[in-house]
Write a structure and sequence with these properties.
zinc; about 350 residues; single chain; Rossmann fold; DHQ_synth_AroB; alpha/beta; cobalt
């Protein structure tokens, strides 16, 4: 797959990626390499990565517990402490080998340790490949509230090795697929149309879809790194999706949802709002609703759930002057940012989702 040039770094793929990585990791450039993993990537991905990594620099492995519940300041403190104890200096570099939690948190740790050291993202999940590892967003959660603390700073490079996908469950693959569906809906109708029939999906075709998804996200981010305008398009499905994800993460009687599972619901709900505002046709809405529902399991919501999810919307990062801001579809393949709605329309969207 062809290298994708971002604003200040490049996204490399597979074998070429390891060759390029070797040109970065030279003793004259870095004093020490720290590889951040969680218990899953340590078990399933680390040996493959190390077998393909060429460098003469001393390596240290820092392993974390897996899961969104550990994407917090306490874990950051543990990693900062480990870096200090293991002799990290300002010429050290962190390689974040993992899913979105590792790339988000690892990037934030790197940006803040000794006022900032370099980092490279090596995503190991589909979700991280097409979303979390690209675009320079680094951060952690504040309690159950998603990505409330963070900074925008781009990595030195991203290496996408699709061999890691063989370690994932179908549930994890579907989670990543949600962001790919989103990229088609907000930017490229032809790309969206490719997801209408995935029966003939093979490795080469999946690689092509992944490459195009990253290309779309990079095209948007390159125009608006700090999310003052068009980058907000990438939040389609996320205003309600993040609130749903946070709610299910915090409620002890609910099973936590994977990011993509929550975003899939959010995209249906926000497509409904788009239709009700006259931005999406009836047929377009039903196409989106039933394609997504065919891929993801239905989530049950009662009236109390809906009220509590609406209460969480006030914490969404896009809000301005206390108003909840949505990015809504303006037909398939186009987007309108900074859109408002009312509470009853959100309730109606949940009711329609449940039908």
């Amino acid at each position: 797959m062809q290298t994708i040039a971002a604003t200040n770094y490049s996204i490399f793929f597979n074998e070429l990626g390891y060759e390029k990585l070797a040109t970065y990791l030279l003793p004259a450039q870095y004093s020490k390499i720290f590889i951040l993993v969680d218990e899953n990537t340590s078990q399933y991905c680390l040996s493959h990565f190390l077998n393909n990594l060429t460098t003469e620099i001393e390596l240290e492995i820092i392993e974390l517990e897996a899961g969104e519940i550990h994407k917090n300041i306490t874990t950051c403190f543990e990693v900062w402490s480990a870096l200090s104890e293991l002799g990290a200096d300002r010429k050290s570099i962190i390689i974040n080998l993992g899913g979105g939690v590792i790339t988000d948190l690892g990037g934030f740790v790197a940006c803040t340790f000794k006022r900032g050291i370099d980092f490279i993202n090596v995503p190991t999940t589909l979700l991280a490949m097409v979303d979390a590892s690209v675009g320079g967003k680094n951060g952690i959660d504040l309690g159950n509230l998603k990505n409330q603390i963070g900074v925008i700073r781009e990595p030195k490079a991203v290496l996408v090795d699709t061999e890691f996908l063989s370690t994932l469950s179908q549930k994890e693959m579907r989670s990543g697929l949600a962001e790919m569906l989103k990229h088609g809906l907000i930017f490229d109708k032809e790309y969206w149309n490719q997801f209408k029939n995935l029966n003939n999906l093979n490795t080469d075709y999946l690689n092509t879809l992944i490459h195009r998804s990253i290309e779309i996200k990079n095209t948007i981010v390159s125009q608006d790194l700090n999310e003052n305008g068009i980058r907000k398009a990438l939040n389609f499905g996320h205003t309600l999706g993040h609130a749903i994800e946070s709610y299910f993460l915090d409620k002890k009687n609910k099973s936590p949802l994977l990011h993509g599972e929550a975003i899939a619901v959010g995209m249906i709900l926000e497509s409904y709002i788009s239709r009700e505002k006259g931005l999406l046709t009836h047929d377009e809405y039903h196409e989106i609703k039933y394609i997504i529902k065919d891929i993801y399991e239905r989530i049950e919501f009662d009236s109390e759930d809906i009220k509590n999810i609406q209460d969480l919307l006030i914490f969404d990062k896009k809000n301005e002057f206390g108003k909840v801001q949505f990015s809504l579809l303006d037909g398939i393949g186009k987007i309108k940012i900074n859109q408002s709605t009312d509470k009853q329309l959100i309730v109606n969207a949940f009711e329609d989702y449940s039908r």
